[in-house]
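Checklist before submission:
- one chain only
- standard amino acids only
- sequence pasted in full

Submission:
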Amino acid sequence: MEEFLLKFDSPDGRCFVLVENDRTSCWAYLIESDSENILKDVFLYSPIEPQENFDKVAMAEGATPVLITRYASESAVIDSLDTSSIKVRWSSISGSFSIHYRDSPIAAIYADHQLGFSKALVGSSGFGEEWDENRYNQTFR
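Returned file contents:
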């Protein structure tokens, strides 16, 4: 899978979402438009098979962490993707959005929670939180 960056502007113009796939992981970042500060992030999926352990050397050199097996759900790996099938859905609550792949939500960031929620994850870790369908429905339905 090729590297890519996709940008989605919020309806109010105060922030945007940047989706980045670096061929080892894919993340979405909520970024403030004026300062370009990253406000929050969420892990979307892994374009490669999860690893057993973190590569601490690569991470120390600035590499994005590769998802590890103990935090990977059964749907964590997407190894072939059409970028036109990725969409952002903004909530009426400022700072909350969800990422959709093929019209189905795969991750979300909520204004009132520091970590993002992802269907690619099991449990809670530095990658984010496990998907919460009830929270998603309360915010986006």
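Reviewer check: The chain has a mean pLDDT of 93.
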